[in-house]
Amino acid sequence: MNTPAVSRKHLDNSKERHRSSGTVMLNSRIVVEKEKFVSTGILTYVEGDILEIEMSEYKAFELGDAVKLTIYSPGGFYPFESTVVAKDQGVVMVLIPPQHQNRFAEKREHPRVQVNQKGALVSYRNEDGSWQVPEGQIPLTVKNISLSGVGFIIEEPVELDRDALVQLHLDLGFAMHCRAEIIRTEPVEFGCYYGAHFDELAADKANSLRAFILKKQVETHFAQKREE
């Protein structure tokens, strides 16, 4: 039976004293409301900026819907506003506001997504502090990426030591130029794998990268669920 429509005014009567600074756990019950409609579900997935709610009335919600969530967990209840960013059979996904992200026990601070994107090494800094610019950009393949760093493979014979600074161009569906510090090197069958930490990622680049990671998270998560 469908949940009856209710007004937002009726649902906004939560009292501050009932809120808690405890931790939200998976399988917590969630009330999800939008204008003139309210439903309930279960928290089934938390990663990075998103959480997944399993619910029978998922078809009532559309991408971009503004919603108010109230999560009921053993430590208390947690109301906050959000936006629907994805949905699939039996579930919807919403954004976690930054000020609420530390409440989720299962959340990783910077989720890393597996990708297969192209890019190039533009330059790297020598031990004497000077920048070496190769003759022509050196191609690389991005294997994983997060808001804090990137993992990539270079097949050409170029030696980048740990702590080396590099200038990269990444093709993520948008052009991303960035500087990073090498923190890991590992020989692989075809070339060398490098792990690097972003250095001073500008706000506009961080926002574009966050959107890219969010899209990949959703695609990967739903694909894995279909395979189960």
From TrEMBL:
<feature type="region of interest" description="Disordered">
    <location>
        <begin position="1"/>
        <end position="20"/>
    </location>
</feature>
<feature type="domain" description="PilZ">
    <location>
        <begin position="106"/>
        <end position="214"/>
    </location>
</feature>
<dbReference type="InterPro" id="IPR009875">
    <property type="entry name" value="PilZ_domain"/>
</dbReference>
<dbReference type="Pfam" id="PF07238">
    <property type="entry name" value="PilZ"/>
</dbReference>
<protein>
    <submittedName>
        <fullName>PilZ domain-containing protein</fullName>
    </submittedName>
</protein>
<dbReference type="GO" id="GO:0035438">
    <property type="term" value="F:cyclic-di-GMP binding"/>
</dbReference>
